[in-house]
Design a protein that fits this description.
With about 260 residues, the chain is mainly alpha-helical. The protein has helices at about 15-20, 25-40, 50-60, 60-75, 90-120, 120-150, 170-185, 190-205, 210-225, 250-264, and strands at about 45-50, 80-85, 85-90. Helix 2 packs across helix 4 (about 60-75) and helix 7 runs parallel beside helix 9 (about 210-225). This is DUF1376 domain-containing protein.
């Protein structure tokens, strides 16, 4: 429904100049007064009034009213129809605007009705379940990504070190050595790489011999040393021995290191 007493009017200057440029000033202002009346009635495209009403509206004589009506009609400014008790003026622009507005309003109502039907309670539950499923899938993807980033093989595990000797005895002795370093010196291997380097150093000092490697571990723990040193006779007790020996690795240890490098 149209609103009355609207606070503004849409005046298309270009159209007005093009259509009304052929009118006299009196006829142009007379037509503008008619447009104002249509606007005040809620943009109604039709305005009806009596001959006396036009005299008052246009502030002119009956003869001048007839001249203005004839000028508007000849230049096809608006639709004019003579009535028994007056005249009817019709604005083609306002009529077109009202028709367009009505069409858009009906289309909006249809869209709203369709949206309401699509979002009724019977269809909300499946949509909610589907949404939760999407969230679960996203969480699964995040977990998989974390696993790929954390583990070298994408299994979510930290890379493990390779022991130079495969026996359970050496594994036990190496764990005892790590416990000793933590308890006595508050030192730990902060990464698998640093622990792997220590194992390589131990294997080098032991020249690939497991029994010698275990003896080196016992030597350092027995003397309270922080590091690993070449096994020396008892005569040099009290000081960590210095010197280096030729690096020698067991065949199995070298094979595992080579496989690790190739897989990396």
């Amino acid at each position: 429904m149209s609103k009355k007493n609207l606070p503004h009017i849409q005046l298309y200057i270009g159209d007005w100049e093009r259509d009304c440029n052929v009118l006299s000033l009196e006829a142009e202002m007379a037509w503008m007064k008619i447009v104002f009346k249509m606007h005040l009635s809620g943009k109604e495209p039709v305005y009806k009034t009596s001959a006396k009403g036009l005299q008052i509206l246009w502030k002119c004589s009956p003869q001048k009213v007839q001249e203005i009506i004839a000028e508007l009609d000849i230049n096809q400014i608006c639709g004019i129809q003579s009535l028994a008790d007056g005249y009817e003026f019709k604005s083609r622009r306002l009529e077109k605007e009202n028709t367009t507005s009505k069409t858009r309003s009906e289309a909006a109502k249809k869209r709203y009705s369709k949206d309401q039907k699509d979002t009724n309670p019977t269809s909300k539950t499946p949509a909610k379940v589907l949404q939760n499923t999407d969230i679960d899938n996203d969480n699964d993807i995040d977990i998989d990504n974390k696993n790929v980033n954390n583990g070298k093989e994408g299994m979510g595990e930290k890379p493990t070190v390779l022991l130079p000797y495969t026996s359970a005895e050496f594994a036990t002795q190496w764990q005892l050595w790590k416990n000793y370093r933590h308890k006595e010196h508050r030192q730990n291997y902060h990464s698998p790489e640093s622990e792997q380097a220590a194992l390589a150093e131990l294997n080098s000092l032991a020249q690939g011999q497991q029994t010698t490697a275990i003896a080196i571990l016992h030597q350092s723990m027995g003397k309270g040393w922080k590091g690993l040193f070449e096994l020396k006779p008892q005569g040099n007790a009290g000081k960590p021995p210095a010197g280096k020996s030729k690096v020698k690795y067991s065949d199995d240890f070298k094979r595992k290191i080579a496989q690790r490098l190739q897989s990396g």
